[in-house]
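Re: the 687-residue chain
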Amino acid sequence: MKLGAQGLRGLLLSGMALMPMAAQAAGNEAADEEAASPIIVTGVGLNAAPAVPAYSSREIDREALTSSVSGRIEDVLANVAGFQQFRRSDSRYTNPSAQGATLRALGGNAAARTQVLLDGVPMADPMFGSVPWNAITPERLGSVRVTRGGGSGAFGSGAVAGTIELNSAGRDTLGLISAEALANDRGETSLSGAVAPKLGAGFAEVSGRWDRGDGFWTTPESQRVGASVKSRYDSWSVSARGVAPIANNVELQARAMVFDDHRVLRFAGATSHSSGEDFSLRLVGRGPWQFDALAYVQDRGFSNVTISATTFRPSLDQRRTPATGLGAKIEIRPPVGPDHLLRIGGDWRSAKGDLNEIAYNASTGAVTAYRWAGGRNDDLGFYAEDDWKLGPLTLTGGVRADRWSVNAGYFRQAGPTGAVTINNTFDPRSDWAVTGRGGALLKVAPGLELRGSAYTGLRQPTINELYRSFTLVASGVSTVTNANPALGNEMMEGYEAGVDFTPVPALKLSATAFYNRVAHAIANVTTAQTPTTITRVRQNVDAIRARGFEFAAALDLGKVSLDGSLALTDAVVRASGAQIGLNGMRPAQTPKIAASATVTWKPRDGWQGAVVLRHFGSQYEDDLQAYLMPSATTIGAFVQAPLGHGVSFILRGENLADVTVITRNQAGSMDIGAPRTVWAGFRFGLK
C-alpha cells in the first residue's frame, strides 16, 4: 500500500502525541533506578564526523545567531562570505519563490544549489527549490555549520554548492521562557517568544514569531508612479518541538512548524503569499551501534499576483501552487574500532507540485488563458562514508548512489472559453547517478593543520524549472522565461586545499583555494531580443566554472573580538553551440568579491555591542551582462544592555550609512534594498 502525505502526517502526529508519555515514563524509570546512570537527552543528532574539518566549513555559534543586525537568519549566514541568495534583499522584501541559496558564486537562478537542513530535514520548497527563511528564526537555533563544496552523505543530492546545517537549540540553551519585542523607526514590529519546560526526562518547546510592517520604497523615487507602494509584509511562524528518551541511549525527537507569509512588492495589488506545515520525527541512538532515523512531510503553498508595469493592472494570477514533500533517512554507525567512524545509510525524497494560474490582458482585464502544470521528482539514495584516524592524519572517503526520477510532468492551457488549446504530458525519466567525495586532514604541528578534498555532487531540476514559464513586464519591455521539461541534472566536480593556523589560542586563521565546476548548469538563457521583448529559456549550459580563494580570521581578546571572512571568486559560464554567446560570461547574480567583518565588545557580563561591515561586489542581473548592479558596502550594529531580572534592552541598526543597494535591474527597472533602519526593544529570559 502506498503511503501518501496524509498517511505519513498521521503517523508523525501520532508519534508526537506519544512523546509526553514516553518522557514521563522514562523519568519515572530513572527515578526508580537510583543506581543507574542519569538519562541525558540532547535534542540533536549524532556527533559530527571527525573528518568534517577536512572540508571547507564554518561554524556559527549561538551568540552570533542572537546578535544579528536584522534578526534574520539569512543575515546571520551572510557572515560567511560567499553565501548569497538570488536577490540581495532579505526575506521581507523579495518574492518568496526567489529565495534560493548558494555558495562560491555558483548562482544564476532562484533555486538553491546549497542543501539547507533543519535538524536533518531538507527545507527547500518542493516546487521552487527556494528556502522559507521567514519561517526559520535564529533565536530558535543553537548552532549552524556551513560546508562548502559538493556533498555525498545523507540527503547529499542537491548539495552541489554546499550544505547549511541548522541545529535547534536545546532546553538548557533556551531556558524556560524567552521573549523579544522590537519596533523600528518606520513603525514595523517583530515579536517572538518561546516556552521550553522539562517533561520528565525530556523537554518540550513551543515558540512563535510575528513580523509585520508597512515597509519602505523598493522602487527608486525617479521610477515611482501612482500605483507604486511600499513593500509591506506580514509573516508569522509557530514551532513545537519535543525530545524524550524511549530507551537507554535512545531518544525520540519530534518537530512541527507552521508558517504564513504575505507580501506586497512594488505595485498595489502585487501580492505574494506563501505558507507551510512541516512535521518530522527523528530517532537517535547513541549506543555501540549508533543510528539516526527520521521521516518528514511538508505541505507548502504559494500564490502570487503580477501587476503590469505599463498598465498597472493584473497580468497574471498564480492563484494556487500546492506542493508536497515527503522524505525519510536512516544512518547506521557500526562499532568498527576507535580509529574508524563508518557511516552507512539511505534516504528517500519525493517532491510534488502543481500550478494553477490565470493570465489576463493587462489593458482590458480580460482573461487570455488558464494554465495548469506540475509533476513529481523522486530520489532514492544510498551512501557509505568512512573516517580513518592515523595519528596526526585523518582520511575520509565516501560514495553515494542515487536513483533519480522525473515523473508525471504535464502542461495544459485553455483559452478564455475553457477550450483546451495545449495538453502536453511528458515521458518519465530515471537513471542512476554515482557521486563521491574524499579528503585528508593533517595536523602538521600544534595549531597548524593542512586539509584537502575532492568531491562530486548532483542536483535535479526543480518542478518549477521543468514546467513553469513566466513573464515580467518592466519599462515597456516584456521578459518571457520559458520552462524546459527536458532539463537534465546538474553535476558538480570540485577540489580544494586549505590551511588552518592557530598561532595562539586567541587567533585563528584559515585560507582555502578551490576549483568547482557544475556541468549542465541550469540557467535562464536569452534566445531572442527585440526592443519590446526579451525571450529566455531555461537550459543546461555546458558548465559554470568557479575558482577562487576564501579567507577567515577570528581574534578573541576577551572583551573585544573580531570575526571576518573574504571570498574572491572568478566564475564564468562555459557554453557552446547556440549558447556560444554566453561563453566566458560571468553567471547572472554572482559577484567577484564578498566580505564580512564583525567587531564585538563585551565590557561586562550580559553587555554586548557589535558592528558589522559587509561588502558585496558588483553583479549582473542577466546572462548577457547587459544590466549591472553596482557594488555596495553596508554597516550594521547591535547593542544589548541588561536591565535586571532577566530583561535586556536591545538596539539594532541596519544599513546605518543609508547606502543605496540595487537588488534588481530588469531592463533599467530597478528595486533597491532596505534603507537605514533602527530597531529598539526588549529581550527577556528566564532559566
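The chain has five helices and 40 strands.
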